[in-house]
Specification:
single chain, 465 residues, alpha+beta, 2 domains, five-stranded antiparallel sheet, 22 helices, 12 strands
Length: 465
């Protein structure tokens, strides 16, 4: 076996062992409960902590995958009475990954910017205030007094990630953990999820790409009343260092403790940014997880981490709008035609228009149900099962789909947004908000009125990417 092969195996075997050990303990816990009535709480707590600890020390692909699934899959498929146990353990993956030593961060800054942090910045905190899978963030100050956040990539993480992305078994084995700890997860298409996660992570290694994405969003949303995008400092941003305005705000765990009215407002802001940006600037922020938001008392939200952004043409956006409009109108033929035109249905055994309509309308309950609609954990769970089911009516439809490369993140965005809104228990007039965008309807809320005024000021000058 080559050294490269041994390295790949060494990355995969510990995960396989954890998956096997977890599965075995799950059987023991189930038998114990059946025989003695003993609660399995200890098993769930121990498993979630093991899972988070292993991923937290495996910076790169595995940890990034853990961040994705910690909120989307774990939040929806774990038994309701155990969800909080897993969410508590996964919180470390969303915002507080183990940091690198100060001297390593300083070395990266010097290599990228040509001087030590003390020479580049008027002030530079050697200890990171946030850390994640690809890099960590330091507070700093420029000579003019401007407060900035400096994201520094972990040394060697780009090579490690590229190697891991070539190792399809690594991600597939990791995702088997889902089947070991969550009832019903055997219906997940593990390899399909692995491909999606790998594709997204592959775009996040070069911070220059992120700087371009973030600047495009900042240009479009500058002076927006409730959507905030930190400005990039281009002269202090490179492949492995990204410098931007430092923003203070509440993290996810704090936001969940706010009163429901404020959470509803934040939910509407997130919804309008996630889906409104597609219509207004033809871009998707394709990484909707809790670590990428800062919440403010005035109801505004700051959006972070633009490593993965999808851009679409006007024609593509129009087709996606046609898909939703046809489903809302209960028009099976129009829905089928739009799916064919997009390229989702090319196989000879494609679903019938009636099958397609039934499946897709199931995904649109926030638009079709009685308004206002409240996102719940039960609805989020049904979304996950509907997307990844292998069996039943949904599985039959999904198995006959073709997924063009440019649309690979759509289900990720749907699931991530749904999970976020469900955690917030956000209530809103979602159907009327869609009507604003797609049917020239009147503003549905006060936030909608402010949004319309923003785009009127902008003159829609940023519509074309």
């Amino acid at each position: 076996m080559t050294a490269h092969g041994r390295n790949r195996l060494s990355r995969t075997v510990p995960l396989a062992g954890l998956a096997g050990r977890t599965a075995g303990e799950a059987v023991v816990a189930a038998l114990r409960k059946r025989l003695t009535g003993e609660d399995s709480a200890e098993f769930h707590e121990r498993t979630s902590e093991r899972y988070a600890a292993m991923l937290g020390h495996s910076k790169g692909v595995l940890m990034k995958a853990g961040q994705v699934l910690s909120f989307v899959a774990l939040g929806s498929l774990v038994p309701p009475e155990r969800q909080r146990v897993y969410q508590a353990a996964m919180a470390r993956l969303q915002a507080d990954a183990p940091p690198m030593a100060p001297e390593l961060a300083a070395a990266v800054v010097e290599a990228e910017l040509g001087a030590s942090p003390e020479d580049v910045f008027a002030e530079f905190d050697p200890h990171a205030f946030a850390a994640a899978s690809i890099g960590q963030v330091h507070a700093a100050r420029l000579a003019d007094g401007r407060r900035v956040a400096v994201k520094v990539q972990y040394p060697g993480v780009d090579q490690a990630i590229r190697a891991d992305l070539d190792n399809t078994e690594l991600l597939a084995t990791f995702l088997q953990l889902v089947g070991a700890i969550m009832p019903g997860a055997n219906r997940l298409d593990v390899r399909a999820v692995a491909r999606e996660v790998a594709a997204r992570i592959g775009e996040e290694i070069d911070y220059r790409i992120e700087a371009v994405h973030q600047t495009a969003f900042a240009d479009a949303y500058r002076d927006h009343p409730f959507i905030r995008i930190p400005e990039v400092v281009p002269q202090l941003s490179t492949r492995r260092v990204l410098t931007m305005d430092l923003v203070d705000g509440m993290r996810w765990s704090q936001a969940l403790q706010a009163d429901q009215q404020l959470r509803n407002r934040w939910g509407e802001v997130i919804y309008r940014f996630a889906l409104g940006s597609l219509r207004m600037v033809r871009m998707f922020h394709a990484d909707p997880h809790p670590g990428n938001y800062l919440f403010h008392d005035d109801g505004s939200v700051t959006f972070l981490d633009f490593g993965c952004v999808n851009r679409f043409s006007t024609q593509q956006v129009t087709l996606m709008q046609r898909v939703v409009a046809a489903a809302v109108a209960d028009d099976a033929a129009a829905l089928w035609d739009a799916f064919v035109e997009i390229g989702f249905l090319t196989a000879s055994d494609a679903p019938t228009p009636a099958e397609l309509l039934e499946w897709y309308r199931d995904k649109l309950q926030p638009l079709l149900a009685e308004q206002p609609f409240t996102y719940t954990s039960a609805y989020a769970a049904s979304m996950v099962q509907g997307i990844f089911a292998r069996q039943g009516a949904a599985g039959s439809v999904m198995s006959r789909f073709e997924l063009p490369r440019e649309y690979v993140f759509l289900s990720r965005i749907d699931l991530g947004l749904t999970a976020l809104l469900a955690e917030l228990e956000a209530t809103g007039p979602w159907a009327a908000i869609r009507s604003e965008w797609d049917e020239d309807g009147p503003p549905a809320t006060e936030i909608g009125e402010l949004d319309v005024e923003h785009w009127a000021r902008r003159g829609l000058e940023t519509v074309e990417p």
